[in-house]
Amino acid sequence: MLLTHQKGLWADERPLVPHSTALADKPLSGLIDFERQHILLVLASSNWEIEGVSGAEEQLKLAPSTLRNRIKMLGLQWPNSSTSQK
Questions:
Q1: CB within 8 A of 32, min separation 6: which ones?
Q2: What pLDDT sits at residue 30?
Q3: Which is more confident, 19 or 1?
Q4: 47 vs 30, 31, 52, CA distance in Å?
Q5: What is the value of pTM for the model shown?
Q6: Which of 19, 30, 80, 84 is the most buried (most CB within 10 A)?
Q7: Residue ranges of the alpha helices (H) in the chain?
Q8: What is the tens place of the pLDDT at every residue in 11-67?
Q9: Are 85 and 70 in contact (CB under 8 A)?
Q10: Taking 60 as the threshold, does the pLDDT of residue 71 lie above it?
Q11: Which long-range contacts (CB under 8 A, 24 or more apart) does 69-72 make?
């Protein structure tokens, strides 16, 4: 299901891939792997923005602090390590 508060819906044409290709090559083996992949896809679709109208926290229905904790717990890293967390 896709929801939008805008009059149109646009898709970013960049491929949605995890930062680590090692994750993409392994089949999902459980709920933690599923959660990791899902959060990665949402973060990629929000351009790694956590807060705000188009942020991942809004799409995931999580508090920003909870999302940051999950990112840390799952060992996810921002695509560019010199980029600070948003």
A1: 74
A2: 85
A3: 1
A4: 26, 24, 12
A5: 0.59
A6: 19
A7: 21-25, 31-45, 56-60, 64-73
A8: 655 555 555 545 555 565 788 888 999 999 999 999 999 999 889 999 999 999 999
A9: no
A10: yes
A11: 70/35, 70/39, 71/39, 71/43
Tokens coding 73? 């717990």
User: Which pLDDT score is estimated for 28?
Assistant: 59
Q: Which two tokens stand for residue 21?
A: 């290709």
Distance (Å, rounded) from C-alpha 46 to C-alpha 59? 9
Token pair of 36, please?
A: 């990791």
Q: Which two tokens stand for residue 57?
A: 């926290």
Q: Which long-range contacts (CB under 8 A, 24 or more apart) does 71-77 make?
A: 71/39, 71/43, 74/32, 74/35, 74/36, 74/39, 76/19, 76/36, 76/39, 76/40, 76/43, 77/19, 77/20
